[in-house]
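Allow me, if you will, to draw on your knowledge of protein folds for a short while. I have a record of one protein: its chain in single-letter code and its fold written as discrete structure tokens. The full record is reproduced below for your convenience:
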Amino acid sequence: MKNTQNLKHIDIIGSTAMSMTLPVERLATIIQTFTQEMSLIIAAYGGYVLKYIGDAILAFFPVNLDNTSLPCINAVNCAYSMIKIMHEGLNLILNEYDYPEMGVRVGIDVGKNIVVQYGWDNRTYTTKKNKQKIFKKPHLDILGYTNSIAAKMTAFAKPNQIIIGQLVYDILDDVQKFTFKVLPLNSDAWSYLSNITGEVYSLYGSSIRK
């Protein structure tokens, strides 16, 4: 099934350093709290969590071909809310327990992808009459150029920064565009081409919250 989606890759900054000083059980609790809070924010802005990858989250916002701008705007606003929650919420709790602060970095792009099914996950549950029943849940993933780019552009983000692709930037209004600046990247670091212009695909970074 092919469709157009806005894809967002969210990564935690600081979890590796924290893993060197914390017992794995405490680290797991912190990561779990982060993913739960971020997942709630994603849902609040109309997005869906596709999967959790260690301390990262891959989310998507379905795009209606009649209105491609709203999902992109929602994804960007969602990213700003994530940074705010981390800065004004989770880090305050970490500070109370003398844990190092963490940050987030986000990569957002939009384009056509394909949803593929790799098989089925068999789940067993017990009914009220103590009968065992098995139900199958499809194991889905998203493949496509946009999916690959969204993850790779996140690597260029600094803590508490959002990186967006040219297609997302073009959709934003002038006020939102003002908060982003084009990233000066050389061809050795970034060589992905736009499938529309054939030129190097531009990336834009938000101002960094201190």
Observations:
- Residues 2-206 form a domain with the Alpha-Beta Plaits fold (CATH 3.30.70.1230).
